[in-house]
Input
Amino acid sequence: QVKARYQFPGGQNLEIAQGDITAEDVEAIVNAANAMLQHGAGVAGAILRKGGPQIQEESDAWVRQHGPVTHGRPAYTHAGRLPFRYIIHAVGPIWGEGDEQSKLSAAISGSLQLAEMLGIRSLAFPAISTGIFGVPKDLAARVFLQTIADYFSQSPNSPLSLVRITLYDTPTLEVFLETFETWR
Ligand code: ADP
Output
């Protein structure tokens, strides 16, 4: 359910929606992961339950091969039983560890770059770091909007034509919509 939309000069759309990210009609979704890609609770748990064990198996193989996932360089796997081409596993900061804004921004821009590299044209993000990781929702909303806007101003011809932020709970949706109204 799309609640707000903004179109960048290059024609790409940014949408704010409410819903379950596993039900989005996009080519790829971003997971709010941890560095070891151990998908347990929160949105990661929902993705794993619906996608099945293949996602955890591929994630384990990724960490064995590349080591822990850093903020700026998300991992990716296939989606198991979910109808996406890929799942991008981005690692946001934990509130209190320091430098949260730039780490969250790196996770978002790294996901956009990776999606583009994978040939993805539509991508949905959850509100990375605002659940178990405890980053304040208003700060996360500002970082999301600024990072996505910066990305499309630096890549005005990006073929990534849709970026949707899919918020699950109503309090988070409301904060993102308020931030969007002052930002647009
Ligand atoms: P983090 O550990 O990065 O904080 P969480 O998964 O705990 O990640 O929470 C991130 C956000 O994802 C929260 O706003 C939470 O409400 C939301 N969320 C939980 N389940 C879903 C889902 N199925 N689809 C979209 N967002 C979800």
